[in-house]
Amino acid sequence: MALNIVSPGKEKSLVERMQALGVREEDIEEQFVRSSGAGGQKVNKTSSCVVLHHRPTGVRVKCQQERSQALNRFLARRLLLDKIEARIKGASTAAEQEIARIRRQKRRRSRRAKEKMLEAKRRQGEKKAARVPVRGYDD
Question: What are the backbone angles phi and psi of residue 54, rounded to the nearest 5°?
Answer without folding.
Answer: -90, 105
